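hey so u asked for the seq, here:
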Amino acid sequence: MSLTTLQTRADNQCELCAASNDLAAFAIGPSPDGTAMTAALLCPDCTTQIEGEMDVNHWRCLSTSMWSEQAPVQVLAWRMLDRLKDEAWARDLTDMLYLDDEVLAWAKAGMMRESLHKDSNGAPLAAGDTVVLIKDLPVKGGGFTAKRGTAVRGISLVEDNPAHIEGRVEGQRIVILTAFVKKR
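ran it, structure tokens below
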């Protein structure tokens, strides 16, 4: 879809927050059926926050934009509300939002997957990360205490439990609660 077509469709406003400065096409993948209708016209603020850290209050604009008739805008609104599901207002909006089955499938298919494993500060953890213990932890069956400040390199995630990771401390592989580590 050309930028001119997007600008006309969006009336030269960001399709999420209605800003009008420095607008650009934002591709929304994966394409559900190979059509060209897979882009939205967005401002730099929305684009930056979709791809990284979010200002929660900025996204209150979704209360209006989620009602767009354009499938790409609906998909983006659903994905952002899903990322904001810890906010009560976002859960309320999600409960009100209705998407056709095809649009909902598209929204779910391309959703950015955030790690469910988070350290004590809420930072996402990934396999291979290095973490530091923030508390002395007695190791059951190991006969030692893993000391606060110990670096645990190359962690692995326990897939069925986001509160647990595994790592080596003093040569022994142990399970560690994510609440007792911080990402390095």
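The chain has a mean pLDDT of 88. Residues 71-83 form the longest helix (13 residues).
lmk if thats what u needed
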